Amino acid sequence: MIPQELIKKIRQIQIYTSRMVDASFAGQYESVFKGRGMQFDEVREYTPGDDIRTIDWNVTARTGKPYIKRFVEEREMTVMFAVDLSASGDFGTVNKAKNELAAEFCAVLAFAAAKNNDKVGLLIFTDRTELYIPPKKGVSHMLRLIRELIYFKMPKRKTDISGALDYIAKVVRKKATVFLVSDFIETGFKKPLSLLNKRHDVIAVPVRDKAEIILPSIGLIEFTDAETGETILVDTSSRKFKSRYSNTAAQRFNELKNMLRTINVDCISISTDKPYIQDLVRFFHMRHRRC
Predict the structure, then answer these.
(1) Strands 78-84 and 177-182, bridge-based pairing
(2) Is the pTM of this model over 0.90?
(3) 202: which residues sit within 8 A by CB, 6+ positions away?
(4) Could you give the domains of the chain?
(5) Which of 68, 197, 245, 274 reaches 20 to 30 Å from 173, CA-CA?
(6) H-helix or E-strand containing 167?
(7) Model confidence over 176-192: pLDDT tens digits?
(8) Which of 185, 269, 270, 181 is nearest to 225 (CA)?
(9) CA–CA separation, 14 and 139 (whole Å)
């Protein structure tokens, strides 16, 4: 049985995200993320003016009359959320933990997809596949996805992005828009990401916290790696250490963005300390100009 507190939280997210979608980018979502390609509709008899390249020679030979294949633009889209809920996501120093932000971000796009009558699916992963929900339509289905994201009991596990990408490649056969949501602490997934992006439209969503970018001055503290359990003592008042910390964080993020750029994977960066809707709207504008 779902706790009443969770039901209330899901309802709050539904109201909040639905309002944001309506107010900010419902129309932009539809114009940017729309069905790609053409799908077969019917075979009909050839009429003067039809493109001879569309002639169905098998039917023509069988009937003795020229027939053509008719195609229509494929409007329906499939959206997949591949969400990293490993132990490192249970961290946040401002408004919410990174995993909570990831769930809310996915909820916003899920409701936009529901308004556009798209199918939406979900993969929750750590260093293994924790949950896979195949793409379906409907608001009740979207609410189930949000519930799973919020209610997921996070084990103290590491991250395997490559494994998640390989899993999606196996189970999602139809071309989809895949939002890969992670803090991207792990590296070494460039090849599987590049291969998946050749078949699908993959968008990376790095989730970060302010303290991972600029270390606050709070004296001596213990740092514990959530995924390995390793603990070190750090003097956050040290300018030298803080500078090295910030430079390392900036370098890692730049390396991620450069890697994504080389394999043509778009990126939307979100952080626990600031609203992300405007970043999402700017992303939509960028995609729309490129269409």
Answers:
(1) parallel
(2) no
(3) 178, 180, 193, 196, 265, 266
(4) 4-33+75-213+260-290 (3.40.50.410), 38-73 (no CATH)
(5) 68
(6) helix 161-171
(7) 999 999 999 888 999 99
(8) 185
(9) 10
